[in-house]
C-alpha cells in the first residue's frame, strides 16, 4: 500500500532561508496529517533553470522523499500548487525502481562469489 | 568432416576461380575516411562481405550503460542525461549513440522527467 515517492519542487530564488524552512516543515506536518511520512529532505540549492518558468531564470531546488499512499501525495501536490513561491514540482514514484535495483544488486552479489565452479565444469564434460 | 571440406573448398575456390577477389583491394587500417580510433568489425547482421571494398569504416558503438554497468537512469542526474541530448535539446537517437533499446527507453523517460522540472531544456532556449 505504502509507496515511496520523490517530490522535487522549485521555489522562487528570492525566498529567504527561514521561509523555506517554514514551508518545508509545514509540508512535513501536512504529509504526516494525511497518513504519510517524510523520509528525507534534500536541499539541492540554487540552480539556473534550463528555461524560463514564469519570469524566473533561477530556482531553489528541494527534493522530498515521501512514503505514503495516493491521498497523501495528492494532498501534498495540491498544497504545492496553491503555494505561491513554488514555481514547479514533479512527483516520481520510485519504489518499483528501487526494488528493481535491489534485485539486480542481489543477483550480482550472488553471481560474484563462485567463479571456481564455472572453471571446473568443462573438464568434467571432456572426461 | 563434411563441413571441413566445404569450407576448405570455398576458400581455395575463391583464390583460384576469382583472381579479382575483394580481399586484396581493402586498404587496411590506414585507409581513407573513418572516424579514427580503433576499428573493429561491423555489427553482426550487416552485409556478409568482410572489408569488401568499403569506403569508410564504422566504429562499433556500445551501450554506455551496459559497459559502465549504470543501472539507474535517474532524472536528477542531468549531467549524465545531457550527454544524450543534442544541442537543440532533442534526445539523440539510439542509432547515433549506440545505447541499447532497454536503456534508451529508460533514458528517454528520464530526460522527459528532467525537462519537466527544468533540469534540461525542451528546446534551444
| Weakly predicted, low-confidence segments of chain A | 117-127
Q: Give the spatial strand order of the biggest sheet of chain A.
A: 2-3-1-4
Q: Measured on Cα atoms, how large is the radius of gyration of chain A?
A: 22 Å
Count of discrete domains of chain A: 1
Order of helices and strands of chain A: EHEEHEHH
Number of domains of chain B: 2
What is the number of E strands of chain B?
Answer: 0
Mean pLDDT of chain A: 83
How many alpha or pi helices of chain B? 5
Q: Would you identify the CATH H-level superfamily of chain A?
A: Ribosomal protein S6/Translation elongation factor EF1B
The end-to-end span of chain A amounts to 55 Å
CATH topology of chain A: Alpha-Beta Plaits
Please indicate the percent range of residues of chain B in DSSP E strands (runs of 2 or more): under 5%
Rough outline of chain B: globular
Major β-sheet annotation of chain B: none
- Overall mean pLDDT score of chain B? 67
- Roughly what percent helix of chain B? 25-40%
Which features characterize this protein?
heterodimer; A: 127 residues; Alpha-Beta Plaits; globular; B: mainly alpha; 30s Ribosomal Protein S18; 2 domains; 5 helices; 0% strand; disordered N terminus
Q: What does this entry look like structurally?
A:
The complex is a heterodimer of chains A (127) and B (125). Chain A is an alpha+beta fold and 127 residues long. In chain A, 46% of the residues lie in helices and 37% in strands. Chain A has one domain (3-113): 2-Layer Sandwich (Alpha-Beta Plaits). Chain A has helices at residues 17-33, 70-82, 95-111, 115-126; strands at residues 3-11, 37-53, 56-68, 86-93. A four-stranded antiparallel sheet of chain A has the order 2-3-1-4. In chain A, strand 2 and strand 3 form a beta hairpin. Chain B has two domains: 1-60, no CATH class; 64-116, Irregular (30s Ribosomal Protein S18). Chain B is 35% helix and 0% strand. Chain B has five helices and no strands. Chain B has helices at 2-17, 64-67, 78-81, 94-97, 101-116. The radius of gyration of chain B is 22 Å and the shape is globular. Chain A binds chain B through residues 8, 10, 47, 49-53, 59, 63, 88-90, 92, 97, 101, 104-105, and chain B through 71-72, 75-76, 113, 115-122, 125.
Amino acid at each position: 500500500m505504502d509507496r515511496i515517492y520523490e517530490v522535487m519542487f522549485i521555489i522562487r530564488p528570492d525566498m529567504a532561508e527561514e521561509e523555506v524552512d517554514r514551508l518545508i516543515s509545514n509540508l512535513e506536518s501536512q504529509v504526516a496529517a494525511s497518513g504519510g511520512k517524510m523520509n528525507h529532505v534534500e536541499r539541492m540549492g540554487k540552480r539556473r533553470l534550463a528555461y524560463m518558468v514564469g519570469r524566473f531564470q533561477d530556482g531553489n531546488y528541494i527534493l522530498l522523499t515521501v512514503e505514503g499512499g495516493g491521498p497523501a501525495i495528492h494532498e501534498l501536490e495540491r498544497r504545492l500548487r496553491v503555494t505561491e513561491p513554488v514555481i514547479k514540482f514533479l512527483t516520481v514514484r520510485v519504489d518499483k525502481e528501487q526494488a528493481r535495483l535491489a534485485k539486480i544488486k542481489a543477483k550480482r552479489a550472488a553471481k560474484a562469489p563462485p567463479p571456481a565452479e564455472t572453471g571446473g565444469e568443462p573438464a568434467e564434460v571432456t572426461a | 568432416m563434411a563441413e571441413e571440406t566445404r569450407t576448405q573448398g570455398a576458400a581455395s575456390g575463391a583464390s583460384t576461380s576469382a583472381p579479382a577477389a575483394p580481399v586484396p583491394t581493402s586498404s587496411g587500417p590506414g585507409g581513407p575516411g573513418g572516424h579514427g580510433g580503433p576499428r573493429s568489425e561491423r555489427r553482426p547482421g550487416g552485409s556478409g562481405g568482410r572489408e569488401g571494398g568499403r569506403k569508410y569504416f564504422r566504429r562499433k558503438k556500445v551501450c554506455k550503460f551496459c559497459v559502465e554497468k549504470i543501472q539507474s537512469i535517474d532524472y536528477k542526474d542531468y549531467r549524465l542525461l545531457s550527454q544524450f541530448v543534442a544541442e537543440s535539446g532533442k534526445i539523440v537517437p539510439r542509432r547515433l549513440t549506440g545505447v541499447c533499446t532497454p536503456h534508451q527507453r529508460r533514458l528517454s523517460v528520464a530526460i522527459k522527467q528532467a525537462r519537466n522540472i527544468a533540469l534540461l531544456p525542451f528546446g534551444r532556449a
